[in-house]
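Subject: for your reference before the review

Hello V.,

The reviewers asked for a structural picture of the protein, and I figured it would be easier to keep everything in one thread rather than splitting it across files. Below is the amino acid sequence we used in the manuscript, unchanged from the supplementary table.
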Amino acid sequence: MRVMGKTILFFAVLLLIAGFGSAQQPFFPGAGGGGQDVTTLIRIQAVKEEIKLTDEQSAKIPGAVMKALAEVLTPEQLTRLRQIELQQKGSNAFTDAKVQADLKLSGDQKEAIKNVLEESQKSMRELFKELQGGGGNFQGVQEKMGALRKETSDKILDVLSADQKKNWTAMLGDDFKMPTFGKGKGDFFKKKKKDEQ
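And here is what came back from the structure prediction:
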């Protein structure tokens, strides 16, 4: 029973870290019964290795996906999707070349943001070690992760000029609350079950 509890805790922390590091969805083999779509598969390291995807190709994929979506979605839908994507990426959105270009970040600003993100990732790894070593409880570590995300965001915003901050706010659009598993109206599974009926 204790081993099971630690295993669940381990995977929960992995999900939190994955959510902090990027908007990338975690991969669960066979999850949902329908397999993974191509955009999810191509993010998995083992798949990248299997198809011999180069770093150059990998870097072009987000742009190619957005270009393809532009042929299907209205401009308004595409804009809102991009806003939600940036919100989900959080501070890591500032590593996006398009974000850097749109905000007209200087070389010094890019370097300062890179340093903030590296420091944040180091702190995140320390939190993970604390949890692995049994020195912290899940709730406490989760709160520390939230505080770390806020601190990282504040430090990055301090690097931006007033105009860049204004543009960044506009790029994010209205706040979007991502549905959570098993809670409230946004439950992933309620919608699916309703559709299946």
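For the response letter, the relevant points are probably these. Confidence is low (pLDDT under 50) at residues 1-33, 183-197. Residues 73-177 form one domain.

Happy to draft the paragraph if you're swamped.

O.
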